[in-house]
Design goal:
Elements: E1 3-6, E2 34-35, H1 46-51, E3 65-69, E4 76-81, E5 84-89, H2 90-101, H3 108-128, E6 136-137, H4 152-163, E7 168-172, E8 175-176, E9 181-182, H5 192-196, E10 218-224, H6 225-235, E11 249-254, E12 260-265, E13 268-271, H7 272-278, E14 286-290, E15 294-300, E16 308-309, H8 310-318, H9 323-330, E17 335-345
Parallel strand pairs: 4-6, 9-16
Antiparallel strand pairs: 1-17, 2-17, 3-17, 4-5, 7-8, 7-17, 10-15, 11-12, 12-13, 14-15
Bound molecules: zinc ion.
Length: 346
């Protein structure tokens, strides 16, 4: 008996996108998505999730019997691991991503929020075709992290987080979102437009309280004034850094998320994101103080600060929020929907 997998979007608008994950020629199983038309109220256990009935409007292949299947164990991703493409189930991929991206002792609801964000992120990357020979890579600076190394105890918790969110993704306007996440915002996240220059409706600036006990929540680096000047003048030859360091700094503005937006240094307009990159700062949420011979930069938070704060998710979970509340807080105006697979038997 030959088994094959068919997944269909229940959302009519998405039926026009027949191949979302795997480009033609891929060895991965052919699938389209099944996405429920209504936001999902996830069940509390993996068993209940697996038993969930498919949407009544599902299209069944003529002459075939269809059986609802859990998504994560049926769909595979081609993952670029150390230069080699490895095919693995979404479930196995997500456990490795959780191991790389979030401490296993975080509350279960935070781990589940991360699992949904990472599933959404991975499927979106695969859909976009970022890598020609793979759906996603394991470089956190390119896609998102992944590792096979984790303790048995961590594996148990990550497996639970993945199983209890099987197939759940975050959508906006019936499309998968770019579910960006980061470590710690310092109290408020940034809108995408403030960091990357393009306005994305679901990546807006939102409050993110309770992150204060994150490691290195606030950190001060002391830069020698000559080093500071040399690095800046390399990037901006027209910058006038004559006179004492106190005279170098002009007006500045802040973003809605509290980050340094623009600062004038030596008469030149410098973006906060550029300053962060040039001096490898932990965050654009920063304050600068100047002495006669050094520049002190105090950062708060860690990461690009757009999307879901992981330490904010931890704080929300500790305050009683479930993973849906966490995701809907950080991704403005979104919904959570469930991807399902159907197994057709011939
Ligand atoms: Zn990548």
């Amino acid at each position: 008996m030959k088994r094959f997998f068919i997944c269909l979007f229940f959302v009519v608008a998405l039926c026009c996108t027949p191949f979302l994950l795997f480009p033609e020629g891929s060895a991965a199983p052919f699938w389209k998505d099944i996405m429920s038309t209504e936001p999902v109220v996830p069940s509390d256990s993996a068993q209940e999730a697996e038993a969930a009935a498919p949407d009544e409007e599902a299209t069944e292949p003529a002459g075939s019997e269809t059986v609802s299947q859990p998504f994560d164990s049926q769909v595979t991703l081609r993952v670029l691991v150390g230069g080699e493409v490895t095919e693995m189930t979404v479930a196995d991929y997500l456990k490795g991503t959780l191991a790389a991206e979030m401490p296993s002792d975080f509350p279960m609801e935070a781990l589940k929020a991360q699992a949904v964000a990472s599933r959404t992120f991975a499927l979106k990357q695969a859909e976009a075709g970022k890598h020609s020979n793979a759906d996603i890579c394991t470089d956190s600076s390119c896609c998102q992290g992944w590792t096979s190394e984790m303790s048995d105890e961590a594996m148990t918790r990550f497996s639970q987080a993945v199983a209890e969110t099987d197939g759940l993704v975050v959508t906006y306007g019936d499309s998968l979102i770019d579910a960006t996440f980061f470590s710690c915002s310092g109290g408020r996240t940034e809108a995408a437009v403030a960091v990357w220059g393009s306005d994305i409706p679901y990546l807006q600036s939102v409050e993110s309280p309770g992150e204060e006990d994150a490691p290195r929540y606030q950190e001060t680096v002391v830069l020698d004034a000559d080093y500071f000047a040399d690095l800046l003048q390399e990037a901006y030859p027209e910058m006038n850094l004559s006179g004492p360091p106190r005279a170098w700094f002009g007006p500045f503005t802040r973003t809605e998320g509290g980050g340094l937006d623009i600062v004038f240094i030596g008469g030149v307009r410098v973006e906060g994101t550029t300053l962060r990159r040039l001096f490898s700062l932990r965050s654009t949420n920063l304050d600068i103080s100047v002495t006669e011979d050094n520049i002190q930069i105090t950062t708060t938070g860690f990461g690009h600060r757009v999307g879901m704060s992981q330490y904010g998710a931890r704080a929300m979970a500790e305050g009683g929020a479930d993973f849906e509340e966490i995701l809907l807080h950080y991704y403005t105006g979104t919904e959570i929907k469930k991807l399902l697979c159907q197994t057709a038997e011939q």
